[in-house]
Amino acid sequence: MTAACRESSLLFHAADGSELPLLIFEPGAGTPPRAGIVLFHGGALREGSADGLAPHCRQLASHGIFAGSAGYRLLGPGGAASIDDCIADVRWAIDQFARVAAVRGLEASHLASGGSSAGAHLAIVAALTPPAATAAPRAGTAALVALNPAGSNLRSFEPAAQRRLERQVGIAPGRLIEYSLIELVRPGNPPMQIHHGTRDEVEPIDSVRQFRDAMVRSGNECVLIESVFEKGQALRLSRVQAR
Q: What pLDDT is recorded for position 175?
C-alpha cells in the first residue's frame, strides 16, 4: 500500500498570458520531499491533459518526491499555433514549478522535468535548447525523465513524412530537424533516464537507442530502461545502458 499524498492545484500563465493548470502532489504530512519533478502529458500535441499523469505523480509523492503535472496549449482549438507555443508553455510551467518547489525547500539542483510521448519530447527540447524569445524563461532542470519519448531521430523519416509532420505541428518546411532530439545532443546535457517499449509502433526502439548512444558518446549520463514484452509472459524490465 502506498502512503497518502497531499494534492492541490494552481494556475500558471502560459506564454500568451492564458491560464493553464499545474497539479501538485506532495509527500504525506511529516515527510519532507527529497527531490521534485514536473511532468507533461502526451497526446500528439492535440489531446490529453494534466490529469493524465496524475497517477504517476501520486506514486512519486508516495516515495518522497514532490511531483507536478502541467498542462500546455494544444494545437488546433487548444490555442497553440505551432509546437513552438507548446515548448514556450512548458518553459513557463517548469519555471512556475521551480518557484513552488523552492517554497518547499527544494533547490534547483534537486529538480527534474519530463513527461510521456509528446510531453517528454517537449520537456527535452525545452531543456536542451535556449528559449526562442528573450522574455521566456530558460528551462532550468537538473535532470530529465522521459516515458516513451517521441521525436528521437526525425532525420530518419522519409522527406514526405517530414513535410507532413511540419504541417501538422505548424512549422515552416525544412525546420523539422530542429526538433529532432538526437540533433540537440551536446556535451553537458542534463542526465536523463528513458523508459521505452521495444515494440513501440510510434517511436521505434532503435531510434531511442541511437539517441541514448549519442548522449553517452558526448559524455552525458543517459540510461535507457526497455520494457520487453514476450508472448505468454508478463512485462519485464531490463536496464540497458551503453558501455
A: 96
Residues of the chain with pLDDT under 50: 1-2, 230-243
Three-state DSSP state, 23: strand
How far is Cα 94 from Cα 199, in angstroms, rounded to an integer? 31
- CA dist., res. 162 & res. 93, Å (int): 29
Query: 200: Cβ–Cβ under 8 A, 6 or more apart, which residues?
Result: 148
d(CA 117, CA 108): 24
- For 137, other C-beta atoms within 10 Å of its C-beta total 16
**Which residue has 528573450 as its cell numbers?**
134
Q: What is the pTM of this model?
A: 0.91
Q: How far apart, in Å, do the first and last CA atoms of the chain sit? A: 37
Quick one: pLDDT at residue 148?
96
Give the Cα separation of 228 and 177 in Å (integer): 29
Query: What per-residue confidence (pLDDT) applies to 242?
Result: 38
- Rounded Cα distance between 202 and 221, Å, is 25
Quote the CA–CA distance of 136 and 80 in Å, as a whole number. Answer: 16
